[in-house]
Model the fold of this input.
Amino acid sequence: MNGVKIIIILIRICNGSGAQRLVEQPGGVAMVNTFFHKVYCLDSGFHTGEENMAFDRQLMAVFLDGRFQQRYGRDSCLWRFYAWHPYAVTVGYNQDISGIDMLKCRSAGIDVVRRPTGGRAVFHAEEFTYSFFAESAVPNSELYRMVHEVIQLALESLGIHAGFCRSTLSRPQGGAPAEAVSCFTASARNELQVDGRKLVGSAQRKSRNVLLQHGSLPLSARHKELYRFITLSEGDAFEEIRADMERKTTSLEEILGYIPEYALLSKLMRSAAGKLHGIELVELQPCDLSDILEPYEHSIH
Done:
């Protein structure tokens, strides 16, 4: 038909809370998510642990009070991409920080900071990190999967065929030290894995209908060095955590044989987010948000 493509084929309501549509693309038909009609992206680059978590708290605050939506639309969402310099250990919102050896971290030049989300500790070394923000009545589990579908699509561009974890891994009776401390040794439903090993670790926080989800995509095996910075009384616990991380987790370098550039991953994520939502993604700069972020520097802790 003179090169004109038929775009929208079908709209399907998902559990009464969101929608998807089938889109004709070269090579077949793809399902496109339509939870949001305006998708924004902010690449903030490398920052300290405290700066990164403060930025996520500030962005959640401007979604909670509606300032982001007033400027960019009620049906909008925001992706942020970033990395860590220096490296950092983050702990979950309710996690006991005494499990982290602060002296070892300080000696190694490692930041230690608490996340505004739940979950367990993560060592952010060589990794690509994302945050996702939205005001939505869509169930957390559906948004969790949608976010990972974007990451899955970006990984496909690198030739990585990541699958979804279908159920939460059962914890050994009594709880193993590794699972009590480390995020990457425990998997949740719809997290991404390759050959049964976890590739992306994510956590959520929802206040009213505003969701913050952020997560880590390890570029190398450095994230497995978390065991170096924990405080445990059991003599064999360090080796157990090291072995558990090695057995249950993986990284892009281990899969590909090389470390992709941060800029390439940011580009692939932007492209994937636009494709999944079926619309053109709009890129923002930090200066675009400075006036609405300034009053909320310490509003969420």
Summary: Residues 1-19, 21-31, 169-175 have pLDDT under 50 and may be disordered.
